[in-house]
């Protein structure tokens, strides 16, 4: 009787909450331990090259690095539970403040790129599938395959550098770096989205090709339903499940791509922040940023699972929505 | 009186009162006494005037109009028209309080020993006479030069009353320099604004042209992006790495050089290393060609003949003291030796200088294990207590203080483990005695003569191999200028040209 009255959504959401909690615990432990493995003495780096041995030891005590590793872990975890990410070894700033300043820059560029990816990739994949249905326009099919395969393999930093050379330095149309204006978003977004657009559009094109040959699509065409309605109402919902499943992986990886893009474009986001922190052995900042990025990736996957479950409630009963 | 005003600087002819630059990283602190990184020094120079300033021919006045010096004392005459950013008059007491704080053990400034020489300091103001007297327990002839360093910038009373706010750059009345920090977004941008009525500009032998900017806007960004931003007009003045300089050689840009520090080879002279043997050190010097190193790292540099650049007072310039190149002689000693070489990836592009040294030693028959590492690893290895993990290093010395002490103290005197700076852990009594004499000298002639003997002794013992300067270049767009007085970068010299 309990099974009959228990909502499948409740079970699903509880399951996802459990997964998120587990992911958080693993992230916290991993971020703490991995940073300990980075070679170099953070106290010496923080004290500087002119510091004496006594100065370095004073810094070590001030930063709590003289404590046993387990004591440091305990301090880190209890701090997190009270919302305290610690203070930067380098600047003494609260890590939460550093993250708070940088996070919007990373989130804005990543989510803009995600949005552009989904819109462009779905539109492109559907269009090519439609135009090449029934083996028509073979040249388009081949060109699409080659071009997307080629662009997909271009490293993000190469794409970014090329965009800067062409659109900023040569043509003077867009800023080369920084985040000083709305125009600043254009090139980093393209650099970040290009490869995912190619991979997602290829999936959409393949799935659309199958969908467009289904009986219900032939029926829709027979009923003279408008092309736009055929694709939007009948084809698209049936594509989204597989598209979003792949997209979840691709989009989560874009957070990592954002690190590279931020370096190319001097974008003041978490990626640049974590690179600086690694160079400076700024443990609290490294841990805080990696934890936040991991949390965002985990939340992103959960959001996609929820969207998929909304589109196809059968996934609720199977207990697993996607990846 | 120099004031900021709108002028026609800018590479598209538009008027501006702002100069846009770039810093590599966020400053770690805005407290001049606690500076460590390059961007810390830049921030300190902009916000806090020093009592003395460097010029190409020596020292000129800053907050002090003149000074007298003996081995254990510098007495400064303080100008009577300098003010803090909150209007507080900068009196001898204000100066003394700031310098005393810099020198105090409680402040734990890592630059203070290089400024004051490491002995106890007494700073005594005389407001009636308009003087400040700095007395040292042990002689230190570099005190006057030390007082030109940005770390010795005078912090106003409002800053001394709020050390945390001072470090965060949030104390409006703390600034004694021409610019006050008026906006800061860490990781993004720092804005400095010219103080109304500021009139304590140093009087350089060659006056600066142009007008100071009303606003200095520094974005924080990746080094690789800066050249592009200069070319697109998003920046007006910024440091550019050597590999990107050719992009500015044709066009309306000025390349303004300064010296950040020096490169030299330092040997581990403990018994764990083959370089404890002077013959092995000499062999290394016979095969490592400083000119070849400079070509690999930065052809814009200058060859050094000591542990300091040619702009430094008393530096050795006698090239005949260098070990002559002799590959055959070197091979007879180095053949079959295993050498552990360590250097940072900052020694040329991706550590090109380290690779050059490795290949030269290999050419002489040695097996060379190169650790091309980042700064954090290098500092931990070289400055840590374990001397058993390296034999020789390419040392990229950053000489913000601008004296021979910075370099020579790395190969003379007390070792790191015993509280000193001697990385080589070398013992050279002759050089150490001459070095001590130089620091206790009563005038420049005696000082330079003693320094010369110290340098000759370390060069003869091959306690280190001088290589080249570590230059930096600020590229300025058309309509902007900057100078490096005494060879050291100084962002207060940024000007908009009319």
Write up what this structure looks like.
- The complex is a heterodimer of chains A (323) and B (498).
- Chain A has 323 residues and is mainly alpha-helical.
- Chain A is built from 14 helices and no strands.
- With 498 residues, chain B is an alpha+beta fold.
- Chain B folds into two domains: 269 residues, D-Maltodextrin-Binding Protein, domain 2; 211 residues, Dipeptide-binding Protein, Domain 3 (Dipeptide-binding Protein, domain 3, Roll).
- In chain B, the strands form five sheets. A six-stranded mixed sheet of chain B has the order 11-16-12-15-13-14, with helices on both faces.
- In chain B, α9 runs antiparallel to α11 and α14 packs antiparallel against α15.
- At the A-B interface, α3, α4, α6, α8 and α12 of A face α7 and α12 of B.
Q: What's the helix and strand layout?
A:
The complex is a heterodimer of chains A (323) and B (498).
Chain A lengths: L1 H4 L2 H30 L4 H6 L5 H10 L6 H13 L13 H37 L6 H16 L2 H15 L15 H27 L2 H8 L4 H38 L5 H10 L3 H29 L2 H5 L5
Helix pairs in contact in A: 2-13, 6-9, 6-11, 6-13, 7-9, 8-9, 8-11, 9-11, 10-11, 11-12, 11-13, 12-13
Chain B lengths: L17 E6 L14 H10 L4 E4 L2 E4 L2 E7 L2 E6 L13 H12 L8 H5 L4 E6 L4 E6 L6 H4 L10 H4 L2 H6 L10 E7 L3 E6 L20 E6 L4 H7 L5 E3 L13 E15 L10 H10 L2 H8 L29 H8 L3 E7 L7 H12 L3 E7 L1 H9 L8 E7 L5 H5 L20 H11 L4 H17 L3 E14 L2 E2 L13 E2 L2
Parallel strand pairs in B: 1-10, 13-14, 13-15
Antiparallel strand pairs in B: 2-3, 4-5, 5-7, 6-7, 8-9, 9-10, 11-16, 12-15, 12-16, 17-18
Helix pairs in contact in B: 8-10, 9-11, 14-15
């Amino acid at each position: 009787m309990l099974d009959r009255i228990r909502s499948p959504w409740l079970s699903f959401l509880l399951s996802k909450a459990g997964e998120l909690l587990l992911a958080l615990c693993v992230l916290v432990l991993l971020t703490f331990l991995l940073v300990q493995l980075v070679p170099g003495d953070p106290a010496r780096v923080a004290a500087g090259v002119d510091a004496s041995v006594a100065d370095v030891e004073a810094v070590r005590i001030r930063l709590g690095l003289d404590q046993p590793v387990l004591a440091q872990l305990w301090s880190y975890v209890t701090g997190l539970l009270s919302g305290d990410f610690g203070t930067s070894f380098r600047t003494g700033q609260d890590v939460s403040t550093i993250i708070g300043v940088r996070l919007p820059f990373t989130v804005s560029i990543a989510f803009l790129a995600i949005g552009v990816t989904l819109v462009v990739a779905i539109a492109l994949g559907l269009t090519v599938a439609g135009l090449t249905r029934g083996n028509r326009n073979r040249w388009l099919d081949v060109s699409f395959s080659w071009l997307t395969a080629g662009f997909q393999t271009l490293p993000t930093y190469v794409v970014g550098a090329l965009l800067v050379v062409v659109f900023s330095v040569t043509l003077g149309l867009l800023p080369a770096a920084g985040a000083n204006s709305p125009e600043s978003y254009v090139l980093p977004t393209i650099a970040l989205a290009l490869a995912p657009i190619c991979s997602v559009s290829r999936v959409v094109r393949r799935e659309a090709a199958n969908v467009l040959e289904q009986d219900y699509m032939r029926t829709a065409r027979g009923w003279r339903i408008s092309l736009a309605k055929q694709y939007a109402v009948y084809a698209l919902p049936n594509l989204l499940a597989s598209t979003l499943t792949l997209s979840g992986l691709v989009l989560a990886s874009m957070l990592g791509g954002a690190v590279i893009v931020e370096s190319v474009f001097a974008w003041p986001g978490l990626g640049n922040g974590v690179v600086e922190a690694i160079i400076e052995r700024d443990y609290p900042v490294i841990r805080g940023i990696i934890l936040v990025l991991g949390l965002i990736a985990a939340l992103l996957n959960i959001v996609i699972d929820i969207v998929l479950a909304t589109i196809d409630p059968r996934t609720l009963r199977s207990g697993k929505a996607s990846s | 009186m120099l004031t900021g005003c709108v002028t026609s600087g800018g590479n598209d002819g538009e008027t501006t009162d702002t100069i846009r630059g770039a810093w590599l990283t966020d400053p770690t602190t805005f407290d001049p006494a606690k500076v460590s990184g390059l961007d810390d020094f830049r921030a300190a120079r902009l916000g806090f005037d020093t009592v003395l300033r460097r010029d190409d021919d020596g020292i000129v006045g800053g907050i002090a109009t003149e000074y007298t010096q003996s081995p254990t004392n510098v007495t400064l005459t303080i100008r009577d028209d300098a003010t803090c950013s909150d209007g507080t008059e900068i009196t001898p007491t204000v100066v003394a309080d700031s310098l005393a704080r810099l020198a105090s053990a409680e402040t734990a400034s890592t630059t203070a020993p290089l400024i004051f020489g490491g002995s106890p300091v007494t700073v005594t103001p005389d407001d009636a006479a308009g003087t400040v007297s700095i007395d040292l327990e042990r002689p230190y002839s570099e005190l006057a030069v030390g007082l030109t360093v940005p770390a010795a910038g005078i912090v106003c009373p409002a800053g001394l009353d709020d050390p945390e706010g001072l470090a965060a750059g949030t104390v409006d009345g703390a600034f004694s320099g021409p610019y006050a920090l008026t906006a800061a977004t860490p990781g993004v941008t720092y804005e400095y604004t010219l103080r109304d009525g500021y009139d304590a500009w140093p009087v350089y032998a060659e006056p600066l042209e142009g007008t100071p900017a009303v606003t200095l806007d520094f974005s924080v960004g990746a080094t690789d992006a800066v050249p592009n931003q200069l070319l697109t007009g998003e920046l007006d003045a910024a440091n550019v790495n050597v590999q990107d300089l050719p992009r500015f050689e044709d066009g309306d840009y000025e390349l303004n050089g300064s010296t950040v520090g020096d490169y030299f080879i330092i040997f581990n002279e403990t018994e764990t290393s083959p370089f404890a043997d002077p013959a092995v050190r000499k062999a290394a010097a016979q095969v490592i060609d400083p000119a070849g190193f400079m070509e690999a790292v930065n052809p814009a540099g200058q060859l050094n003949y000591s542990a300091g650049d040619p702009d430094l007072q008393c530096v050795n310039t006698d090239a005949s003291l260098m070990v002559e190149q002799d590959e055959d002689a070197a091979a007879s000693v180095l053949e079959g030796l295993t050498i552990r070489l360590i250097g940072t990836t900052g020694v040329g592009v991706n550590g090109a200088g380290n690779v050059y040294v490795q290949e030269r030693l290999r050419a002489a028959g040695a097996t060379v294990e190169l650790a091309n590492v980042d700064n954090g690893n290098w500092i931990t290895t070289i400055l840590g207590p374990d001397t058993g993990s390296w034999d020789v290093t390419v040392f990229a010395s950053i000489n913000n203080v601008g004296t021979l002490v910075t370099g020579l103290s790395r190969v003379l005197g007390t070792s790191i483990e015993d509280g000193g700076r001697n990385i080589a852990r070398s013992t050279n009594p002759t050089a150490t005695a001459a070095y001590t004499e130089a620091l206790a000298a009563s005038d420049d002639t005696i000082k330079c003569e003693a320094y010369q003997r110290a340098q000759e002794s370390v060069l003869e013992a091959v306690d280190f191999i001088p290589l080249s300067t570590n230059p930096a270049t600020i590229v300025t767009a058309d309509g902007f200028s900057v100078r490096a007085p005494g060879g050291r970068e100084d962002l207060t010299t940024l000007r908009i040209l009319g």
